[in-house]
Amino acid sequence: MTFHGQKILPAAKTMKQFEKILESSYEYGVFLDTHIGQLKSIYTMARSRGKKMFLHADLIQGLKSDEYAAEYLCQDIKPYGLISTKTSVILKAKQKGIQAIQRIFLLDTIALEKSYTLLEKTKPDFIEVLPGGMPSIIAEVHQRSGIPIFAGGLIRTVEDVERALEAGATAVTTSNESLFKHYDRSVQ
């Protein structure tokens, strides 16, 4: 799946960043650090502007990241996709027909091998690889898993984005506003 030519998925950590996404040409984006009390209103705003927003389930303040929370999010909030490090959240999202993005932190070879085992179990729609500035690892994970990759974390420059995409990432998630602006078709 491609995101209609979007190279990056802008990630909102604040309402100010979310407002910038609303005003941009981006169709797809990511909600990071949100509060449970804001979810319905921000998704109403996003939908009214034609935005398809992924939601990081592990970063919702006031909501435990487990299968019951995932069920609530899938049934009541209906995000475009759920991002999580938790197996139960990924499996529930898949069961409910919501895009499931398994977030993996690649600290060392042991973490990488454990991630491959996890991916066999969850079979997510996408994998978010962190840190995203490791082109050779992105290529390896994509080749070995066959699952589309989002590269995220510590993406700071246009070169970081381009290297991740050249390595096989489908898109790059970033909260770096200069990158939002650089890749926003409405600004160019």
UniProtKB/TrEMBL annotation:
One of its GO terms (biological process) is glycerol metabolic process. It holds the Pfam family G3P_antiterm. GO terms for molecular function: RNA binding; transcription antitermination factor activity, RNA binding. Keywords: Glycerol metabolism, RNA-binding, Transcription, Transcription regulation. Signal peptide: none annotated. The keyword Methyltransferase does not apply. Regulates expression of the glpD operon. In the presence of glycerol 3-phosphate (G3P) causes antitermination of transcription of glpD at the inverted repeat of the leader region to enhance its transcription. Binds and stabilizes glpD leader mRNA. This is Glycerol uptake operon antiterminator regulatory protein. It comes from Paenibacillus mucilaginosus 3016. The lineage of its organism: Bacteria, Bacillati, Bacillota, Bacilli, Bacillales.
